[in-house]
Amino acid sequence: MSISSSCLKVFEWDGTPAVNIGKIANNDAYSTGDNPDVMFLFIHDLLSWNFPNLRLLANHYARETGATLFLQDFCGDESLPFAPILRNNWHLLNVPAFIAKNTREIREPEIFEVARAEDEVQERRLGGKEQSPLVDCISAGHPTWLTKKDIEEVAVPVQILAPEIDTAFNAELKLHSFQTIPKLGIPFDYQHFPGVEHACFSRGDLNHAGEREAMIRGKNAVVSWFKQFLFETGRSEDRTSSAVWSMKFVSCLLCTSCETKFNY
Description:
This protein is globular. The protein has one domain: Rossmann fold. The longest helix is centred in the middle third of the chain and has 22 residues, at 104-125. Helices cover 35% and strands 19% of the residues. Helix 2 (52-65) packs parallel to helix 9. By secondary structure, it is an alpha/beta fold. The chain has an eight-stranded mixed β-sheet. Helix 6 links the parallel strand 5 (137-141) and strand 6. Residues 147-229 form the Dienelactone hydrolase domain. GO terms for molecular function: hydrolase activity. Keywords: Hydrolase. This is Related to dienelactone hydrolase family protein.
């Protein structure tokens, strides 16, 4: 399916995001949307939470789903320069040092703190009566640090957006997803994006052939997925819903066995 020129024109990708900065738990957060019942957590990639394109993308997600979205800082108030990343000039960056300070082991507990804080806000609004899971569904675009164990333990509806060129979510993990998730008894949506590479869904760079179209197609897929499972699949009026849209992808968002799991 191709993306029409009109879609490219209406996509708000060259604007300036509003400054809606607050704190959730101990993490700074960009927020957009005003729905107290439906919200989702947007986990950024190497470009970090203050990359303008991610905030514009967050605005689209919130507006098109009718949800409230939180894009937290999960890099300790630090970010790499955007220009070298966008131009693939990795030799200008000390990526190993940056990653060493932002490993899964370091940042995963923060993500759970933020998710629990959001859930507590919802529970207080409902008088403390809600016992719903922290996460109702998941979408992951070019996931990083994903393991086979994560795939085997996913327990809620999950969507994976997979660029063709991706050393992180490689052919072995893609195959394992196909072979494993359909046997778990949960809704599963896998979308393949030919000719584009890891990071396409956050960059949407016109200088990379097909990347802007892939980013828009990915955005549309996520919106449709979340609208289906946060609004249309039997959610009662007296409870809230939440979701995770992850580019970095921390596996315990999917786990059913680890001590800090979401209560599915």
